[in-house]
Amino acid sequence: MPEITSPTSLLLLWAALGYLLGSVPFGLLLTRALGLGDVRSIGSGNIGATNVLRTGSKGAALGTLLLDGGKGALAVLLARALAGEDAAMLAGFTAFLGHCFPVWLGFKGGKGVATFLGTLLAVAWPLGLLACATWAATFAALRISSASALVAAVLSPLWAVLLGRPDAALLCLGLAALILIRHRANISRLLAGTEPRVGRR
Fold first, then answer.
1. 80 in any annotated domain
2. How far apart are alpha carbons 147 and 195 in whole angstroms?
């Protein structure tokens, strides 16, 4: 097998590895392992932590949150350690793509919020903390998970620029665009005033 020495080939390799790592459907695997059924058959049908919480298992939801965030972070950290910052950015982006569009589930995955936050924490922890703080502040004010995710995503490029990371700002722009696309239905409900608040029926 020939050795991969081309920078382009290395980037493509890490893009593929990031995607495969991101495509592991932890929400689905955890709920099945715990005997909670197929998470795709309840609530929104999403495989992310918010929908896993609808199974009634806070432990499964927390595990999904940490693992989905962790796979984005791991993709970035591994690529950075072995191939440099460009590979890290690309691996983080494709890990997010893998979570949202996993090949194993017919490209029907989660909305990517946990993976987004985990990726940013690994890219630059101050940036990740600002994104997490933005999510938390919005959620405290509105009690709407989707709105919190959207505000955190849209503001993340600004935080990256203010932190002196224009390279991370480009990554944030790409991730924010995908989060907006994945939350189209939520945006419609937010505009209509029908998006549910956490803790209320």
1. yes
2. 9
Q: Which own/partner pairs from 78-86 qualify as long-range (CB within 8 Å, at least 24 positions apart)?
A: 78/17, 79/14, 79/17, 79/18, 80/122, 83/10, 83/11, 83/14, 85/167, 86/7, 86/11
In a domain? residue 133: yes
Q: Residue 131 is encoded by which pair of tokens?
A: 């994104």
Crossing angle between the packed helical segments 145-162 and 125-142, to the nearest 10 degrees = 150
Does residue 27 sit within a domain?
yes
**How far is Cα 169 from Cα 127, in angstroms, rounded to an integer?**
10
The total of structural domains in the chain comes to 1
- Its pTM stands at 0.90
First to last CA, the chain: 58
Is the residue at 1 inside a domain?
no
Give the structural domain span for 168: 7-192
Tens place of pLDDT per residue across the chain (201 aa): 444 444 888 899 999 999 999 999 999 999 999 998 888 888 878 888 888 888 888 999 999 999 999 999 999 999 999 999 999 999 999 999 999 999 999 999 999 999 999 999 999 999 999 999 999 999 999 999 999 999 999 999 999 999 999 999 999 999 999 999 999 999 999 999 999 887 654
Which is nearest to 62 in space by CA: 92, 31, 33, 93? Answer: 31
